[in-house]
Amino acid sequence: MNLIIRPRRLRRSEAIREMVRENHLNPADFIYPLFIHEKDYKEEISAMPGIYRWDIAGLVKEVFRAWDLGIRCVVLFPKIDNSLKTEDGSECFNEAGLIPKAIRMLKKEIPEMAIMTDVALDPYSCDGHDGLVDDNGKILNDETIEVLKKQSIIQARAGADFIGPSDMMDGRVGAIRSALDLEGFSDVGIISYTAKFSSAYYGPFRTALDSAPKKNNKKIIPDNKSTYQMDPANSKEALIEAALDQYEGADILMVKPGVSYLDIVYRISNFTNKPLAAYNVSGEYSMVKAAALKNWIDEKDIVLETLLSFKRAGAKLILTYHACDASKWLKEK
Ligand code: PBG
Question: Is 119 helix (H, G, I), strand (E, B) or coil?
């Protein structure tokens, strides 16, 4: 055949494929989510094989392991004892609480590792919502923001490098930015959950922290988060959220979940010049793990291909429970 253009010429050998490869994965692209609890042993999360709730000493070791693999940022999530959960989530202000304690310990032992936190009330609230719930089951926006500002300050004071508001209240990025600046934390950044969808893919995470919306005999509790997290049917709305977070001072934007929302990653990456992150969430992890344990898929190839798809869609950073395994596999390559 007389073909002038033969794309296969650039696929002939691994050397040539490497020459023209457009996207690469690097351990420094990963942000590693870690669960912690108030016990002195680690406990595997049943719906997330290979992922644990760590005690503080175990956490420190795991973070050293991640650092040695090339990972440069971790994000911490606390499993708070039920006895400490209240309607106002006030345990999140406790300077001696689990998260401030873990941050201080990590900053002492391995100060180079960047630490991101999660700002929202769900791990601390007996109602299991990210915001305050009134007697009629309404999630209160502006009142919640006052609490989130305080929570952010506590985390910054403990040594957090990035505050990660995951609550989806309107105006929280700007409010947290001003609160941080006012307290002298102008160097502390914000990685905002910009387009966070109301998704069933968070299921395993909610069992890990026991943080799902719960019944409360005193009042009505909505059993889902649809009045604040985004409708999975929408994409233009994600651009409004991105514009707001950027304008309000977010340093890094994020899309969540990941795999089913790569169109949103692509759209926002075309819109913003800020670094963009995507969250390869718990349900995505669990599905891959379950199929891998049954030997139905090749875990390593599936994971690396999935993570690469985030880069191709335009994300610079990927929050992923596969962070350590993937970094190891990249080293072996
Ligand atoms: C809490 C929060 C959630 C996740 C991160 N922060 C759950 C939720 O919004 O219900 C989910 C992470 C995952 O599924 O891996 N605001």
Answer: strand
Instruction: Establish how many alpha carbons lie within 13 A of residue 311's alpha carbon, considering only the half-sphere containing its beta carbon.
Output: 16
Distance of CA 169 to the CA centre of its chain: 16
Residue 9 inside a domain? The answer is no
Q: Mean pLDDT throughout 32-56? A: 98
Distance 20 CA to ligand 1 centre (A): 37
The span from the CA of 28 to the CA of 70, in Å, is 6
Atom of ligand 1 nearest to the CA of 211: 10
Domain limits for position 169: 23-332
CATH code of 123's domain: 3.20.20.70
Indicate which residue of 79, 85, 149, 196 is catalytic: 196
Domain count, the chain: 1
Q: Rounded to two decimals, what is the model's pTM?
A: 0.97
Read off the amino acid at residue 65: R
Does the residue 125 lie in any domain? yes
Any ligand 1 atom below 6 A from CB of 124: no
Q: Which of 15, 18, 27 is nearest to 304 (CA)?
A: 27
Give the position, in ligand 1's atom list, of the atom nearest the Cα of 130.
16
pLDDT of residue 217: 87
d(Cα 98, Cα 86) in Å, to the nearest integer? 16
Residue 258 inside a domain? The answer is: yes
Coil/strand/helix, residue 4 = coil
Q: Residues 59-94, buried b or exposed e (16+ Cβ, 10 A)?
A: bbebbeebbebbbbbbbbbbbbeeebbebbbbbbee
Query: What's CA 187's distance to the chain center, in Å?
Result: 21
Over residues 143-188, the pLDDT tens digits come to: 999 999 999 999 999 999 999 999 999 999 999 999 999 999 999 9
Q: What is the pLDDT of residues 88-101, one digit of tens each?
A: 999 999 999 999 99
**How many other C-beta atoms can be found within 10 angstroms of the C-beta atom of residue 195?**
27
Q: Let me know if residue 15 belongs to a domain.
A: no
Rounded Cα–Cα distance for residues 166 and 128 (Å): 14
Catalytic residue among 79, 85, 225, 256: 256
What is the tens place of the pLDDT at every residue in 57-85? 999 999 999 999 999 999 999 999 999 99
